[in-house]
Amino acid sequence: MHHSIELAKIYVRLGNVSVLQGVDIEAKPYEFISLVGANGAGKTTLLKVVNGTLKPSKGKVCVLGHDLSQYRDLNFLRRDIGVVPQKSNSSRVPIRVEEAVLMGRYGKIGLMRKPKKSDWDKAYEAIEAVGINRFAKKLVYELSGGEQQKVALARALVQEPLILLLDEPTTYLDSSSHSEIMEAIHTIHHQRGLTTLLVSHDSRLVEQYSDKIYLLRDGKSHLVK
Amino acid sequence: MSWAQILSFPFMQHALIAILFAGIAFPIIGVFVLSLNLIPLRFAMMHVALLGGAIGLFLKVDPLLLGLLFCILSSLALGPISEKMKLGVGILSGYFMTLTLALAFIIIYKADIHVLQAFNILWGNILSLTLLDLIIVGVISLMILIMVFLFFKEIQAILYDREIALAVGLPEKTFYYLIIFMLGLTIAVSMRLIGALLIDAFVLLPAMAATLISRSLKQTFFLSSLFGLLSGTVGLYLSFAFDIPTSSTIILVASLIIAGCFLFRRGASSHEKGG
Fold first, then answer.
1. Domains with residue ranges and CATH for chain A
2. Which residues of chain B neighbour A89 with C-beta distances below 8 Å?
3. Nearest to B89 by CA among B155, B33, B138, B163
4. Does residue A176 sit at the B interface (CB-CB below 8 Å)?
């Protein structure tokens, strides 16, 4: 069986800065992998490499058995990768929460096709799974950062992905809710049979949930669990 | 004065037809501009058009036609170039704006062109439209409406967040470039209609008014078209009835609509707080 994610000797330069200098990471199917490191260590950059939005200057990226360097268009692969970004959405475009969640289906629905009832049903399943029913009709820009991260998680789930990438999913939550959201993510990971790669600056928070933990320091990865 | 009297003049019939098309379709482009923060790009394209006009005058070719051509070419090039150079469209627009303006002035000076003649292309005149102008406005307006109808969900995702559109597997770049291209076409045609300096009357102001009070993207598109149509037709009527410049009157009406939407929003939010 192929690895879900396989990064070998990854180098990334952003401007004049070498952010990643030979990173190796492997995630087998259904594994929960955490990537920890200080701010600016290159964790978010690495997630971008995994979903193909950033090309490394050197190294091999294999995701779901596909060597990313062999493809010009990676949209087919991105449809199987759910992404929960760290940043909250600053857009003032009036989009309701239910619509923002439904967007996770857009890649799979196909061009020029309208979402069907089954797509809406899946959106509402994800909304319930994440526990955001009470503000499903609200506009996204009216929500707090933490609530917006839950919307992003629901959108990633409605994609029915094989891989889930989470970038600091507890950033906007108060510390008392950290364990609660991690429990929810872990449950979803098992229930849906996902391969999960989670980025966090807090190694204690991710310890009990992770099959493997990589520490990212000085541009290199170190397997610490 | 009645509409029947106003429409007895063929040039007014042409102006009204153009306003019906542009009033409905062009504010949708304004919603794109506001949502994707493309305001600097819009400025850059106006100056690119000025350069085209200056070259046209120098080469004794129709300056308007060359202005339009330059606008279209720059709208095709700006997106991909900004992506390749890893610069935002905003930064690149600033570069293009100053560069094209400088080149335009060099040509104007060296070719001994009267400055007013060059700036004519920035002014336009909705009361002197030909049949060909109307066909162009109609075709571009229909292109905009068809694009939004066919690709609503893709456009919705891109206007909301380009990174999310990419992450869920949509061809985000293709649509982004398409939006920039349609913006270029709209600016090119608006210059003929109302003049580059007053393009905002059709493109931005109705969209600004709609975004103040809308609760969904579909509503934003619908209201911006409604406001565009309203400000265009009322502006045209008032300008003729009171013998004042058409473009300025349309802008005044659009500005009043924005003020009305602002007051409506304030009233709605204080009503919510109150109870």
1. 1-80+164-169+196-225 (3.40.50.300), 83-160 (no CATH)
2. 160-161, 164
3. B33
4. no
